[in-house]
Write a structure and sequence with these properties.
By secondary structure, the protein is an alpha/beta fold. The structure holds fe (ii) ion. The site of fe (ii) ion (FE2) has 5 residues, from helix 5.
Length: 249
């Protein structure tokens, strides 16, 4: 984060503190259950960079993560940091933060009766799903470059097209590594159903193509029918030059 960075006014009402001592035993158990179940699949199917991020950040099934400790690691590795927030931010504030390498994260965890799915993000989606990739420099630079474009785009149609790029990379991205398909998008990483759908062949896999991504509508209420696989993280970072040209920013 730049030393000159000022938290955007419209993000301020959403900022909270992580009150670690207030997590209950049930909430710690929820983290452990979700972590263990996802890692069984991810050890084989997540990309190398994600698994390396898990290990660098010291994320384990033993305890829910402490945001300050994650920040100490991220600052050294990629100059990103997490900022605890109460929930979804307005789009502009969200991208202003990401463009400053600040990731707004929720710190609450889903209830034990809705382990499968939570419509709102929670610490499991945000930290377990997103943050390990932020420890990888090329991906971390991609996310910042994307956000810097997104914050400058001000009409609905362009925002929707850019949202598709976010969806098909940051949220549901796949990558080919050593001839195998691996997962890196947080929505697949953190969801057993979405990941199993990809692994079991229920989802069409297309080669990443910027134009096609920008024209492929997002499905939010069903398992993903088609997703895009990249060959390297450099590929999506390099694509941001073309994205700037397309959106004239
Ligand atoms: Fe997400």
């Amino acid at each position: 984060m730049s030393e000159l960075f000022v938290i955007p006014e419209d993000a301020k009402p959403y900022i909270v503190q992580q009150k670690y001592e207030q997590y209950t035993t049930v909430e710690q158990d929820t983290w452990k259950y979700l972590y263990d179940r996802r890692m069984q699949q991810l050890r084989e199917h997540a990309c190398q960079e994600y698994l390396e991020g898990i290990s660098a950040l010291g994320l384990t099934d033993e305890k829910m993560p402490v945001v300050e400790r994650l920040n100490a690691v991220l600052q050294k590795r990629t100059r990103w940091m997490l900022l605890p927030v109460s929930g979804f931010l307005p789009g502009r504030a969200f991208f202003d933060l990401l463009a400053a390498r600040v990731f707004p994260t929720t710190t609450y965890i889903r209830k034990s009766d809705s382990l499968e799915y939570t419509p709102e993000p929670d610490i499991f989606h945000d930290v377990f799903g997103h943050v390990p990739m932020h420890a990888h420099l090329v991906f971390a630079d991609y996310l910042q470059a994307f956000a810097d474009i997104a914050r400058r785009v001000d009409n609905d149609a362009d925002q929707e097209r850019l949202g598709r790029l976010f969806w098909y990379t940051v949220e549901f991205g796949l990558i080919r590594q050593n001839g195998k398909l691996k997962l890196y998008g947080s929505g697949i990483i953190s969801s057993h159903k979405e990941a199993s759908n990809v692994i079991d062949g229920g989802c069409r896999i297309l080669d990443f193509d910027l134009d096609r991504v920008l024209h492929t509508a997002v499905k939010v209420d069903e398992l993903q029918p088609a997703l895009f696989a990249i060959d390297s993280f450099q590929q999506i970072y390099d694509a941001t030059r073309e994205v700037r040209r397309v959106f004239k920013v």
